[in-house]
Design brief:
7-stranded mixed beta sheet, mainly beta, 11 strands
Length: 128
């Protein structure tokens, strides 16, 4: 069974950092584009960042650009999201996702349509 498991969420003060991890199991995701999405309370799920299977291309939401870095280690079937300079507005459940699209396509308004597998989410809370 294909599965994505996120970890690394928690409570952090504004200005702090967290690194989220997403480990895939059940099949190899080395050829998939991997992404991170988030959903804040009362809001729709939104795209954060994506990375192609080779790691050569990344794409970020404007809210994440310059503060977040997505990376992957295909040997470990793991994708990471390094989040720096966190703000209270970053508070959300963060979801890992795998799909068959370009990184930019995954970040498009209909990008969620390319997602084949979702993780269960990990909560990030940023206090002011």
């Amino acid at each position: 069974q294909e599965k994505l498991v996120e970890s690394g969420g928690g409570l952090v003060q504004a200005g702090g950092s967290l690194r989220l991890s997403c480990t895939a199991s059940g099949r190899t995701f080395s050829s998939a584009t991997m992404g991170w999405f988030r959903q804040a309370p009362g809001k729709e799920r939104e795209f954060v960042a994506a990375i192609t299977w080779s790691g050569g291309t990344t794409y970020y939401a404007s809210s994440a650009k310059g503060r977040f870095t997505i990376s992957r280690d295909n040997a470990k079937n793991t994708v990471y999201l390094q989040m720096n300079s966190l703000k209270p507005d970053d508070t959300a459940v963060y979801y890992c996702a795998a799909g068959r699209s370009t990184a930019q396509a995954m970040g498009a308004p209909i990008g969620h349509r390319y997602i084949e597998v979702w993780g269960q989410g990990t909560l990030v809370t940023v206090s002011s």
